[in-house]
Amino acid sequence: MNRYLLPVLLFGLFFWGCKTGKQSSEKTDLVSMHYDTYEQIWAKVDSLEQKGLYQSAREIVEDLAVKAKTDKNAPQIVKTTLYRCKYLKELEEEGELKSLSLLQTETAQAPFPAQPFLQSVLAEAYSHYLRANRWKLQNRTEMEEKGEDPASWPPGEFERRSNELYLQS
Question: How confident is the model at residue 165 (pLDDT cuts 50, 70, 90)?
Answer without folding.
Answer: confident
